[in-house]
Amino acid sequence: MLKVIAEDFIKPESVDTVLPLYRELVAATKKEPLCIAYDLYRDEKDPGHFIFIEQWPDRAALDAHCASEHFRRLVPLIDQHARKDARYILMNEQVDPDIA
Amino acid sequence: MLKVIAEDFIKPESVDTVLPLYRELVAATKKEPLCIAYDLYRDEKDPGHFIFIEQWPDRAALDAHCASEHFRRLVPLIDQHARKDARYILMNEQVDPDIA
């Protein structure tokens, strides 16, 4: 199991432009057969800070997502409005509270 | 609904010391009546980078968590082993793909 956090930082004046692109990306990604979770949130203190919380069965599924038509078409359009580089965290280990 | 990402950055030599503290914190928090989700992950590239992905009904529930006995006892013990300040994102809005 692979959990992913991907953060985008969008220029304030571009937020209304990227929102429909994000909506299309989320809708298309949720239809990918290997997608377990792909939810997009906004920082309550910074409306241009978009945060994806994703879950994939494995790295191959994430790679397939990044190679999809919708990803390759929409992400460059979104990135044109970035104010700084995106930030990614890949997590494949969950701390289990039941192991003493 | 409130989603939270909380990131801790622990010194490499302290990871084995903090792991049981994190396990106790996760186990106790999951028993809080208002806790919807409280899962702790580790960055696959940085074993001292711990990431909580949390969900609470509202800000009052998060405040109650931060005032709990287990939080006030365990978090300062964990923070003694931090190599830099924690990072928090609070998100109260999800981008809905169904709104065209």
Structural class of chain A: alpha+beta
CATH class of chain A: Alpha Beta
Q: First CA to last CA of chain A: what distance?
A: 22 Å
Shape designation of chain A: globular
Mean pLDDT of chain A: 96
**Major sheet attributes of chain A:** 4 strands, antiparallel
Greatest interface and its participating residue counts: A-B, 34 and 33 residues
Compute the gyration radius of chain A: what is it? 14 Å
Q: What proportion of the residues of chain A form beta strands (DSSP E)? A: 35-45%
Number of domains of chain A: 1
Strand order of the largest sheet of chain A: 2-3-1-4
| DSSP helix fraction of chain A | 25-40%
Oligomer, anyone? homodimer
Low-confidence stretches of chain A: none
- CATH topology heading of chain A: Alpha-Beta Plaits
CATH architecture term of chain A: 2-Layer Sandwich
- The helix count of chain A comes to 3
List how many beta strands of chain A DSSP finds: 4
Q: What letter string, H or E per element, gives the SSE order of chain A?
A: EHEEHHE
Task: Characterise this structure.
Chains A, B: Pfam families: ABM (PF03992). 2 copies of one chain form a homodimer. By secondary structure, chain A is α+β, with helices and mostly antiparallel strands. Chain A has one domain: 2-Layer Sandwich (Alpha-Beta Plaits), CATH 3.30.70.100. Chain A is built from 3 helices and 4 strands, in the order E-H-E-E-H-H-E. The first copy, chain A, has helices at residues 15-30, 59-66, 69-79; strands spanning 2-10, 37-43, 46-56, 82-94. A 4-stranded antiparallel sheet of chain A has the order 2-3-1-4. Chain A starts with a strand and ends in a 6-residue tail after the last strand. The model of chain A has no long low-confidence stretch (mean pLDDT 96).
